[in-house]
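Reviewers of the previous submission asked for a worked example of the structure-prediction workflow described in the proposal, so we include one complete record here. The input consisted solely of the amino acid sequence. No template or homolog information was supplied to the procedure at any stage.
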Amino acid sequence: MALTKDNTTTRRSFKHLSTYERGKIHVLLKEGYSQRQIAKRLNRSPSTISREIKRGTTTQFNYDLSTYEQYFPETGQAVYEKNRLACGNKAKLLQVEEFLQYAEKKILKQSWSPDAVVGEALKTKKFTKDEMVSTKTLYNYIDQNLLNVKNIDLQLKVNRRPNKHINRKHKRLSGKSISQRPKKVNKREEFGHWEIDTVRGKRSNDNVLLTITERKTRQHLIRVLKSKTSAAVNEAIKKIKNQFGDFTQNIFKTITADNGSEFANLINNDIDVYYAHPYSAWERGSNERHNGLIRRFIPKGKAIKDYSKIQIKRIQNWCNNYPRKLLDYKTPEQLFNQEVQEILNST
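From that input alone, the workflow returned the following structure tokens.
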């Protein structure tokens, strides 16, 4: 602010140099104008021009490897933008240090995404809006190397565009088509409808993971199979059903599978089974998404035999205790337990 004659204040009309003005400085310097002459031509203070020239001057090499100094408007603009970016960051960083430490811990130790960190913190009121930053800002901080988190530490971005459906007639469905599945299943409003698949490690002589995902809550079950056969799958399903006892029919109403031979005899488990169209993994999108999360811990080509049951259980727990934006930042475990409790209370 500046004082006027009547001792009131007026807002300064100062404006930062534009790219056009930086270009003019470059041309005038080449024509031999002094800094003061340039300042007068641009109606700027000499100190502004001096700082700009210093900011945008770099050392150049001649053909004989001797050096000289020259001002480049592009360099001045780049340094200016970098300084402006850092100026705001420093002020905000000091205010949200506790939140940033919390975010680093969740991302590095628990493999949360920045969006999950921000959403969960707001949902549970761990931090107020003034004590934290938005998802976009948190991503920006990571891009600018302001945190101990690197982009390589983040989950892969989800491809939200479904694959184009292609009908191929050389592979027929093993049972009832997904097109016969009740429409209420598609809406994800009713509990008890599941998607199933397998995750492979090495091509041969290795265990297989059976994965089952509940469509409404996104609860994800992982079981280790000795082989990728229908007998091994059915045995695992029977064990899961036994865990829920008399309430199995309320918890497992339908299962949607692909046309793999390991799912050919699912109908023997007294559950309505539907088969997706061939080459249409997007029709089991929830399960496919969770299998992608598993790959963060067990990359393709790694032997599943090398992972203990405790480690597999830990991966399952991580999937089910990870807050989801589409679940209003609640976890699959929370929602699944609520649904089961409602079943228990109604009987």
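The first helix runs from residue 19 to 30. We consider this example representative of the routine output the project will generate in years two and three.
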